[in-house]
Design goal:
heterodimer, A: 0% helix, B: mainly beta, 7-stranded mixed β-sheet, 11 strands, 58% strand
């Protein structure tokens, strides 16, 4: 089992749709979790950190389920500008490097 | 100016050539990373460094070497480039407080 796994998609949704991505991780000792966004041929940029209690930033909601070892990202009211690849990132423990999932591609159409 | 700067941005070279990709940062972070990205494979960690005297291998370090010349500089070398090292390479720094990674704009390397 890979350390961090994501459904690659693509997810093709119309504007205004709600879409959810899941990411599973194999190391139960993992401590830090993030969602990054990457536009085509650009560098990844932090979308949001994922906290144990779940967190929301506008139309975006991230949740962590430690028991099942997965994190999720929910995007409400999708915009054309949300079209990108969403990368799940996990840090196993302090002092180790971040591990990226392969990414989930979202395409929002009008 | 970008906080994390990579040079060159694009490079085409031939098999067997030595290549160096350079990365410099103005964020004052101790932690620096080199990743490569191939279509459909996501970002794979090559090497990382937590300070000038600390260098660690990542998932795919074979065929690569690094040098941390100063806190602000972390270079990646391909001693003898081969075609399957054709990829997009990213340097990143990490804020040890928030955990956020800050990436350079990437270096696209093509090995013929």
């Amino acid at each position: 089992r890979k350390e961090v796994e994501q459904d690659p998609g693509p997810f093709n949704v119309p504007e205004g749709a709600t879409v959810a991505f899941n990411c599973t991780y194999s190391n139960s000792a993992s401590q830090s979790f993030f969602w990054y966004r990457q536009d085509c041929r650009k560098e990844p940029k932090l979308l949001m950190s994922v906290y144990s209690s779940g967190n929301e930033d506008g139309r975006f909601t991230a949740q962590l389920n430690r028991a099942s070892q997965y994190i999720s990202l929910l995007i409400r009211d999708s915009k054309l500008s949300d079209s990108a690849t969403y990368l799940c990132v996990v840090n196993a423990q302090a002092g180790t490097a971040l591990i990226f999932g392969k990414g989930t591609t979202l395409s929002v159409s009008s | 100016d970008a906080d994390v700067t990579q040079t060159p941005r694009n490079r085409i070279t031939k098999t067997g050539k030595r290549i160096m990709l350079e990365c410099s940062q103005t964020k004052g972070h101790d932690r620096m990373y080199w990743y490569r990205q191939d279509p459909g494979l996501g970002l794979q960690l090559i090497y990382y460094s937590f300070d000038v005297k600390d260098i660690n291998k990542g998932e795919i370090s074979d065929g690569y070497s690094v040098s941390r010349q100063a806190q602000a500089k972390f270079s990646l070398s391909l001693e003898s480039a081969i075609p399957n090292q054709t990829a997009l390479y990213f340097c990143a720094t990490r804020d040890s407080g928030t955990g956020e990674l800050f990436f350079g704009e990437g270096s696209r390397l093509t090995v013929l």
